[in-house]
Protein 1
Amino acid sequence: MDMLVNLLKLPPVPHVDGIVIRRALPFEQTTVRQFILSYFSIAWADEVSVAYSNRPSTLFVALDKGTGTGMICGFFAYECTAKGFLGPTGVAAQYRRRGIGKALLLSGLHGLRELGYVYGILGGVGPEAFYTKTVGAIVIPDSTPGIYADPLK
Protein backbone atom coordinates (compact mmCIF):
# COMPACT_ATOMS: atom_id res chain seq x y z
CA MET A 1 0.00 0.00 0.00
CA ASP A 2 0.97 3.62 -0.43
CA MET A 3 0.71 6.37 2.17
CA LEU A 4 0.28 10.14 1.85
CA VAL A 5 2.35 12.62 3.89
CA ASN A 6 1.55 16.29 4.42
CA LEU A 7 4.88 18.06 3.88
CA LEU A 8 3.60 21.35 5.32
CA LYS A 9 3.53 19.97 8.87
CA LEU A 10 6.91 18.30 9.25
CA PRO A 11 8.82 18.26 12.52
CA PRO A 12 12.52 19.18 12.36
CA VAL A 13 15.14 16.54 11.62
CA PRO A 14 16.36 15.11 14.95
CA HIS A 15 20.03 14.78 15.83
CA VAL A 16 21.30 11.23 16.34
CA ASP A 17 24.44 10.88 18.47
CA GLY A 18 27.40 9.52 16.52
CA ILE A 19 25.57 9.61 13.19
CA VAL A 20 25.86 12.07 10.31
CA ILE A 21 22.91 12.39 7.93
CA ARG A 22 23.68 14.08 4.62
CA ARG A 23 23.02 13.95 0.90
CA ALA A 24 24.87 11.18 -0.91
CA LEU A 25 27.73 12.26 -3.15
CA PRO A 26 28.28 10.97 -6.70
CA PHE A 27 31.59 9.25 -5.91
CA GLU A 28 29.82 7.11 -3.27
CA GLN A 29 27.55 5.29 -5.72
CA THR A 30 29.41 1.99 -5.57
CA THR A 31 29.67 2.05 -1.77
CA VAL A 32 25.99 2.89 -1.35
CA ARG A 33 24.97 0.26 -3.88
CA GLN A 34 27.06 -2.40 -2.10
CA PHE A 35 25.46 -1.43 1.23
CA ILE A 36 21.96 -1.79 -0.23
CA LEU A 37 22.83 -5.10 -1.90
CA SER A 38 24.28 -6.43 1.37
CA TYR A 39 21.34 -5.51 3.58
CA PHE A 40 18.33 -5.16 1.29
CA SER A 41 17.80 -6.00 -2.42
CA ILE A 42 19.01 -5.51 -5.95
CA ALA A 43 15.67 -3.89 -6.83
CA TRP A 44 16.25 -1.22 -4.18
CA ALA A 45 19.84 -0.71 -5.35
CA ASP A 46 18.59 -0.21 -8.90
CA GLU A 47 15.84 2.17 -7.78
CA VAL A 48 18.24 4.26 -5.68
CA SER A 49 20.68 4.62 -8.59
CA VAL A 50 18.25 7.12 -10.14
CA ALA A 51 18.73 9.49 -7.18
CA TYR A 52 22.26 10.31 -8.35
CA SER A 53 21.02 11.79 -11.63
CA ASN A 54 18.82 14.28 -9.78
CA ARG A 55 20.23 17.66 -8.81
CA PRO A 56 20.48 17.97 -5.95
CA SER A 57 20.86 14.28 -5.24
CA THR A 58 17.62 12.82 -3.88
CA LEU A 59 19.37 10.37 -1.62
CA PHE A 60 20.33 10.82 2.01
CA VAL A 61 22.77 8.52 3.77
CA ALA A 62 23.44 7.92 7.44
CA LEU A 63 27.10 7.55 8.34
CA ASP A 64 28.51 6.15 11.58
CA LYS A 65 31.13 8.64 12.81
CA GLY A 66 32.29 6.14 15.41
CA THR A 67 33.81 3.80 12.82
CA GLY A 68 36.39 6.40 11.84
CA THR A 69 35.63 5.70 8.18
CA GLY A 70 32.08 7.03 8.15
CA MET A 71 30.58 3.64 7.37
CA ILE A 72 27.12 3.79 5.78
CA CYS A 73 24.44 2.49 8.10
CA GLY A 74 21.26 3.68 6.39
CA PHE A 75 19.73 5.50 3.42
CA PHE A 76 16.58 7.27 2.28
CA ALA A 77 15.81 7.98 -1.39
CA TYR A 78 13.05 9.96 -3.08
CA GLU A 79 12.05 11.04 -6.60
CA CYS A 80 13.41 7.75 -7.96
CA THR A 81 10.55 5.61 -9.25
CA ALA A 82 8.06 8.46 -9.73
CA LYS A 83 7.70 12.17 -9.09
CA GLY A 84 6.70 12.88 -5.50
CA PHE A 85 7.44 9.30 -4.40
CA LEU A 86 9.50 8.59 -1.31
CA GLY A 87 11.61 5.52 -0.79
CA PRO A 88 13.13 3.08 -0.72
CA THR A 89 14.66 3.46 2.69
CA GLY A 90 16.56 1.20 5.02
CA VAL A 91 18.75 1.03 8.11
CA ALA A 92 21.12 -1.87 8.79
CA ALA A 93 19.69 -4.15 11.48
CA GLN A 94 22.43 -3.44 14.04
CA TYR A 95 21.66 0.32 13.84
CA ARG A 96 17.89 0.15 14.24
CA ARG A 97 15.99 1.60 17.22
CA ARG A 98 18.40 4.54 17.55
CA GLY A 99 16.33 7.14 15.67
CA ILE A 100 18.31 6.88 12.44
CA GLY A 101 15.29 5.85 10.38
CA LYS A 102 13.31 8.81 11.69
CA ALA A 103 16.15 11.24 10.92
CA LEU A 104 16.55 9.83 7.40
CA LEU A 105 12.79 9.93 6.78
CA LEU A 106 12.51 13.55 7.88
CA SER A 107 15.59 14.54 5.88
CA GLY A 108 14.01 13.08 2.75
CA LEU A 109 10.61 14.63 3.45
CA HIS A 110 12.18 18.04 3.94
CA GLY A 111 14.14 17.47 0.70
CA LEU A 112 10.92 16.75 -1.19
CA ARG A 113 9.35 19.87 0.31
CA GLU A 114 12.35 21.91 -0.88
CA LEU A 115 11.51 20.76 -4.43
CA GLY A 116 8.12 22.46 -4.07
CA TYR A 117 5.86 19.55 -3.15
CA VAL A 118 3.24 19.93 -0.42
CA TYR A 119 2.39 16.21 -0.26
CA GLY A 120 4.57 13.15 -0.70
CA ILE A 121 3.75 9.51 -1.39
CA LEU A 122 5.43 6.73 0.55
CA GLY A 123 5.32 3.91 -2.00
CA GLY A 124 4.83 0.27 -1.12
CA VAL A 125 5.07 0.86 2.63
CA GLY A 126 6.14 -1.84 5.05
CA PRO A 127 6.01 -0.36 8.59
CA GLU A 128 2.72 1.57 8.38
CA ALA A 129 2.62 2.32 12.13
CA PHE A 130 6.09 3.93 12.01
CA TYR A 131 5.06 6.36 9.27
CA THR A 132 1.75 7.18 10.92
CA LYS A 133 3.39 7.85 14.29
CA THR A 134 6.42 9.73 12.95
CA VAL A 135 4.87 12.00 10.30
CA GLY A 136 1.11 11.46 10.41
CA ALA A 137 1.07 9.54 7.12
CA ILE A 138 -2.27 8.12 6.05
CA VAL A 139 -3.04 5.09 3.89
CA ILE A 140 -4.14 5.87 0.34
CA PRO A 141 -7.20 3.70 -0.31
CA ASP A 142 -6.97 1.14 -3.13
CA SER A 143 -3.24 1.81 -3.62
CA THR A 144 -2.10 -1.82 -3.69
CA PRO A 145 -0.17 -2.88 -5.74
CA GLY A 146 0.19 0.64 -7.14
CA ILE A 147 3.21 1.62 -9.22
CA TYR A 148 5.08 -1.52 -8.19
CA ALA A 149 2.55 -3.85 -9.87
CA ASP A 150 4.02 -6.43 -12.22
CA PRO A 151 3.04 -5.18 -15.69
CA LEU A 152 2.99 -8.74 -17.01
CA LYS A 153 0.21 -9.86 -14.69
Protein 2
Amino acid sequence: MIRLVLFAALVAVPIAEIAVLLVVGSAIGALPTIGLIVLTAIIGAALLRRQGTAAFGRLQADLQANRVPAAAIGHALTVAVAGVLLLTPGFITDAVGFLLFVPAVRSALWRRIRSSIKVHRLDPETGPDFRHPGAPPRGERTIDLDADDYGPPDPSSPWHGRRDG
Protein backbone atom coordinates (compact mmCIF):
# COMPACT_ATOMS: atom_id res chain seq x y z
CA MET A 1 0.00 0.00 0.00
CA ILE A 2 2.80 2.41 0.91
CA ARG A 3 4.59 1.68 -2.36
CA LEU A 4 1.44 2.43 -4.32
CA VAL A 5 0.93 5.75 -2.53
CA LEU A 6 4.59 6.66 -3.03
CA PHE A 7 4.42 5.76 -6.71
CA ALA A 8 1.23 7.78 -7.17
CA ALA A 9 2.84 10.78 -5.45
CA LEU A 10 5.98 10.51 -7.59
CA VAL A 11 3.81 10.59 -10.71
CA ALA A 12 1.12 13.04 -9.60
CA VAL A 13 3.31 15.75 -8.02
CA PRO A 14 5.41 16.50 -11.14
CA ILE A 15 2.29 16.52 -13.31
CA ALA A 16 0.57 18.92 -10.90
CA GLU A 17 3.70 21.10 -10.74
CA ILE A 18 3.84 21.33 -14.54
CA ALA A 19 0.17 22.27 -14.68
CA VAL A 20 0.61 25.01 -12.05
CA LEU A 21 3.74 26.31 -13.79
CA LEU A 22 1.82 26.52 -17.09
CA VAL A 23 -1.07 28.38 -15.48
CA VAL A 24 1.20 30.82 -13.62
CA GLY A 25 3.42 31.24 -16.69
CA SER A 26 0.46 32.08 -18.89
CA ALA A 27 -0.84 34.57 -16.30
CA ILE A 28 2.38 36.48 -15.51
CA GLY A 29 4.80 35.38 -18.23
CA ALA A 30 7.72 32.98 -18.47
CA LEU A 31 10.50 35.20 -17.05
CA PRO A 32 8.56 36.30 -13.93
CA THR A 33 7.62 32.65 -13.32
CA ILE A 34 11.26 31.60 -13.55
CA GLY A 35 12.17 34.54 -11.30
CA LEU A 36 9.68 33.37 -8.66
CA ILE A 37 11.10 29.85 -8.79
CA VAL A 38 14.66 31.16 -8.32
CA LEU A 39 13.51 33.50 -5.53
CA THR A 40 11.81 30.70 -3.58
CA ALA A 41 14.95 28.58 -3.96
CA ILE A 42 17.09 31.41 -2.53
CA ILE A 43 14.67 32.00 0.35
CA GLY A 44 14.52 28.25 0.96
CA ALA A 45 18.31 27.99 1.12
CA ALA A 46 18.45 30.85 3.63
CA LEU A 47 15.70 29.32 5.77
CA LEU A 48 17.37 25.92 5.60
CA ARG A 49 20.64 27.38 6.78
CA ARG A 50 19.11 29.30 9.69
CA GLN A 51 16.53 26.78 10.89
CA GLY A 52 18.73 23.80 10.10
CA THR A 53 21.48 25.19 12.30
CA ALA A 54 18.96 25.75 15.11
CA ALA A 55 17.46 22.26 14.72
CA PHE A 56 20.85 20.57 14.81
CA GLY A 57 21.81 22.75 17.79
CA ARG A 58 18.79 21.38 19.69
CA LEU A 59 19.78 17.87 18.67
CA GLN A 60 23.30 18.40 19.98
CA ALA A 61 21.98 19.93 23.23
CA ASP A 62 19.72 16.92 23.81
CA LEU A 63 22.63 14.55 23.24
CA GLN A 64 24.91 16.48 25.58
CA ALA A 65 22.18 16.52 28.25
CA ASN A 66 21.85 12.73 27.83
CA ARG A 67 18.21 13.07 26.69
CA VAL A 68 16.67 11.00 23.92
CA PRO A 69 16.73 13.43 20.96
CA ALA A 70 13.68 11.95 19.21
CA ALA A 71 11.83 15.27 18.83
CA ALA A 72 15.01 17.09 17.81
CA ILE A 73 15.69 14.44 15.16
CA GLY A 74 12.12 14.77 13.89
CA HIS A 75 12.43 18.55 13.66
CA ALA A 76 15.84 18.36 11.98
CA LEU A 77 14.58 15.88 9.39
CA THR A 78 11.50 18.00 8.75
CA VAL A 79 13.67 21.09 8.21
CA ALA A 80 15.85 19.11 5.80
CA VAL A 81 12.79 17.91 3.85
CA ALA A 82 11.45 21.48 3.78
CA GLY A 83 14.75 22.71 2.34
CA VAL A 84 14.77 20.04 -0.36
CA LEU A 85 11.16 20.90 -1.28
CA LEU A 86 11.99 24.59 -1.56
CA LEU A 87 15.02 23.89 -3.72
CA THR A 88 12.87 21.73 -6.01
CA PRO A 89 11.39 23.87 -8.80
CA GLY A 90 7.62 24.26 -8.49
CA PHE A 91 5.00 26.13 -6.54
CA ILE A 92 3.29 23.16 -4.86
CA THR A 93 6.54 21.84 -3.38
CA ASP A 94 7.41 25.41 -2.36
CA ALA A 95 4.11 25.78 -0.50
CA VAL A 96 4.65 22.49 1.38
CA GLY A 97 8.28 23.42 2.06
CA PHE A 98 7.35 26.82 3.50
CA LEU A 99 4.70 25.14 5.69
CA LEU A 100 7.29 22.72 7.06
CA PHE A 101 9.52 25.64 8.08
CA VAL A 102 6.76 26.92 10.40
CA PRO A 103 7.62 25.58 13.90
CA ALA A 104 3.93 25.14 14.84
CA VAL A 105 3.38 22.96 11.75
CA ARG A 106 6.46 20.88 12.56
CA SER A 107 5.29 20.43 16.16
CA ALA A 108 1.80 19.39 15.04
CA LEU A 109 3.30 16.95 12.54
CA TRP A 110 5.61 15.55 15.24
CA ARG A 111 2.70 15.09 17.68
CA ARG A 112 0.80 13.21 14.99
CA ILE A 113 3.58 10.74 14.12
CA ARG A 114 5.27 10.47 17.53
CA SER A 115 3.13 7.54 18.69
CA SER A 116 4.27 5.37 15.77
CA ILE A 117 7.97 5.82 16.52
CA LYS A 118 9.85 3.54 18.91
CA VAL A 119 12.94 4.83 20.66
CA HIS A 120 15.46 2.35 22.04
CA ARG A 121 18.19 3.34 24.43
CA LEU A 122 21.52 1.60 24.38
CA ASP A 123 23.56 1.37 27.52
CA PRO A 124 27.04 2.63 26.60
CA GLU A 125 28.58 0.16 29.05
CA THR A 126 26.86 -3.01 27.83
CA GLY A 127 25.47 -2.04 24.41
CA PRO A 128 26.98 -3.17 21.13
CA ASP A 129 30.30 -1.73 20.07
CA PHE A 130 29.52 -0.04 16.75
CA ARG A 131 33.21 0.62 16.11
CA HIS A 132 33.77 -3.13 15.80
CA PRO A 133 30.77 -4.78 14.12
CA GLY A 134 30.30 -8.39 15.15
CA ALA A 135 32.08 -7.87 18.46
CA PRO A 136 30.21 -9.11 21.53
CA PRO A 137 28.42 -6.44 23.57
CA ARG A 138 30.73 -4.54 25.85
CA GLY A 139 30.55 -5.54 29.47
CA GLU A 140 30.35 -9.28 28.76
CA ARG A 141 33.09 -11.26 30.41
CA THR A 142 35.64 -12.94 28.22
CA ILE A 143 37.18 -16.06 29.69
CA ASP A 144 40.65 -16.77 28.38
CA LEU A 145 41.68 -20.41 28.72
CA ASP A 146 45.08 -21.98 28.34
CA ALA A 147 45.57 -25.35 26.62
CA ASP A 148 45.77 -27.18 29.97
CA ASP A 149 42.54 -25.56 31.27
CA TYR A 150 40.36 -27.82 29.13
CA GLY A 151 40.46 -31.34 27.85
CA PRO A 152 38.25 -34.22 26.79
CA PRO A 153 34.73 -34.23 28.26
CA ASP A 154 34.25 -35.78 31.68
CA PRO A 155 31.88 -38.78 31.32
CA SER A 156 30.55 -38.21 34.86
CA SER A 157 29.52 -34.64 34.02
CA PRO A 158 25.76 -34.01 33.84
CA TRP A 159 26.42 -32.13 30.58
CA HIS A 160 28.31 -35.01 28.96
CA GLY A 161 26.84 -35.83 25.55
CA ARG A 162 24.41 -32.89 25.67
CA ARG A 163 24.32 -30.66 22.57
CA ASP A 164 23.13 -27.07 23.10
CA GLY A 165 22.25 -24.92 20.08
Protein 3
Amino acid sequence: MDQKSRRKEVLDEYRQHPPEAGVYRLVNNRNGKALLGSALNLPSMQSKLDFAKKTGGLNALDRKVHADAREYGVEAFDLEILEVVEVRPEMTRAEIMADLATLEALWRERFEPALLY
Protein backbone atom coordinates (compact mmCIF):
# COMPACT_ATOMS: atom_id res chain seq x y z
CA MET A 1 0.00 0.00 0.00
CA ASP A 2 1.45 3.35 -0.98
CA GLN A 3 1.56 6.35 1.32
CA LYS A 4 -1.27 8.22 -0.43
CA SER A 5 -3.75 5.36 -0.17
CA ARG A 6 -2.73 4.73 3.45
CA ARG A 7 -3.37 8.38 4.27
CA LYS A 8 -6.82 8.21 2.63
CA GLU A 9 -7.59 5.07 4.64
CA VAL A 10 -6.59 6.75 7.91
CA LEU A 11 -8.65 9.86 7.11
CA ASP A 12 -11.69 7.75 6.25
CA GLU A 13 -11.33 5.85 9.51
CA TYR A 14 -11.05 9.13 11.45
CA ARG A 15 -14.18 10.53 9.79
CA GLN A 16 -16.13 7.38 10.55
CA HIS A 17 -14.93 7.17 14.19
CA PRO A 18 -13.88 10.61 15.42
CA PRO A 19 -12.38 10.78 18.91
CA GLU A 20 -14.77 11.40 21.77
CA ALA A 21 -15.43 15.06 22.51
CA GLY A 22 -16.79 16.17 25.83
CA VAL A 23 -16.49 17.82 29.21
CA TYR A 24 -13.93 16.71 31.77
CA ARG A 25 -12.75 17.57 35.24
CA LEU A 26 -9.11 17.38 36.30
CA VAL A 27 -9.39 16.76 40.04
CA ASN A 28 -6.74 17.42 42.66
CA ASN A 29 -7.35 14.62 45.16
CA ARG A 30 -5.32 16.36 47.88
CA ASN A 31 -7.23 19.65 48.16
CA GLY A 32 -10.47 18.90 46.28
CA LYS A 33 -10.03 21.63 43.69
CA ALA A 34 -10.75 20.82 40.06
CA LEU A 35 -10.15 22.23 36.61
CA LEU A 36 -13.27 22.03 34.50
CA GLY A 37 -12.78 21.94 30.75
CA SER A 38 -13.90 20.57 27.44
CA ALA A 39 -12.00 18.96 24.61
CA LEU A 40 -12.55 17.78 21.08
CA ASN A 41 -10.45 14.73 21.90
CA LEU A 42 -10.98 13.38 25.43
CA PRO A 43 -8.53 10.48 25.06
CA SER A 44 -5.79 13.02 24.34
CA MET A 45 -6.52 14.68 27.70
CA GLN A 46 -5.95 11.36 29.45
CA SER A 47 -2.76 10.88 27.44
CA LYS A 48 -1.49 14.31 28.49
CA LEU A 49 -2.11 13.50 32.16
CA ASP A 50 -0.47 10.08 31.81
CA PHE A 51 2.55 11.70 30.13
CA ALA A 52 2.82 14.30 32.88
CA LYS A 53 2.66 11.59 35.54
CA LYS A 54 5.24 9.47 33.76
CA THR A 55 7.73 12.29 33.16
CA GLY A 56 6.94 14.54 36.12
CA GLY A 57 6.66 17.43 33.67
CA LEU A 58 3.98 20.05 34.02
CA ASN A 59 3.94 21.37 30.45
CA ALA A 60 1.25 18.89 29.40
CA LEU A 61 -1.13 20.33 32.02
CA ASP A 62 -3.07 23.58 32.03
CA ARG A 63 -1.12 26.42 33.64
CA LYS A 64 -3.91 26.96 36.19
CA VAL A 65 -2.93 23.74 37.98
CA HIS A 66 0.86 24.15 37.83
CA ALA A 67 1.26 25.58 41.34
CA ASP A 68 -0.72 22.75 42.92
CA ALA A 69 1.01 20.16 40.73
CA ARG A 70 4.37 21.45 42.02
CA GLU A 71 3.12 21.38 45.63
CA TYR A 72 1.26 18.04 45.63
CA GLY A 73 2.81 16.31 42.62
CA VAL A 74 1.18 15.39 39.34
CA GLU A 75 0.11 12.09 40.90
CA ALA A 76 -2.47 14.03 42.94
CA PHE A 77 -4.54 14.64 39.79
CA ASP A 78 -7.09 12.38 38.16
CA LEU A 79 -9.20 12.92 35.06
CA GLU A 80 -12.96 12.46 35.24
CA ILE A 81 -15.05 12.42 32.08
CA LEU A 82 -18.28 14.22 32.93
CA GLU A 83 -20.11 14.06 29.62
CA VAL A 84 -19.44 12.91 26.08
CA VAL A 85 -20.91 14.85 23.14
CA GLU A 86 -22.51 12.92 20.32
CA VAL A 87 -20.56 14.09 17.28
CA ARG A 88 -22.41 13.50 14.05
CA PRO A 89 -20.49 13.38 10.76
CA GLU A 90 -22.27 16.45 9.39
CA MET A 91 -21.28 18.62 12.37
CA THR A 92 -18.64 21.27 11.79
CA ARG A 93 -15.82 21.95 14.21
CA ALA A 94 -17.54 25.24 15.16
CA GLU A 95 -20.79 23.43 15.97
CA ILE A 96 -18.97 20.90 18.15
CA MET A 97 -17.09 23.68 19.95
CA ALA A 98 -20.36 25.56 20.57
CA ASP A 99 -21.95 22.42 22.03
CA LEU A 100 -18.90 21.88 24.23
CA ALA A 101 -18.98 25.48 25.49
CA THR A 102 -22.66 25.15 26.39
CA LEU A 103 -22.15 21.84 28.19
CA GLU A 104 -19.12 23.15 30.06
CA ALA A 105 -21.13 26.17 31.25
CA LEU A 106 -23.94 23.89 32.45
CA TRP A 107 -21.47 21.69 34.33
CA ARG A 108 -19.75 24.75 35.82
CA GLU A 109 -23.05 25.69 37.49
CA ARG A 110 -23.03 22.38 39.39
CA PHE A 111 -19.74 23.01 41.19
CA GLU A 112 -18.78 25.41 43.93
CA PRO A 113 -16.76 28.21 42.25
CA ALA A 114 -14.27 28.27 45.13
CA LEU A 115 -13.32 24.66 44.30
CA LEU A 116 -12.59 25.37 40.64
CA TYR A 117 -9.30 26.58 39.26
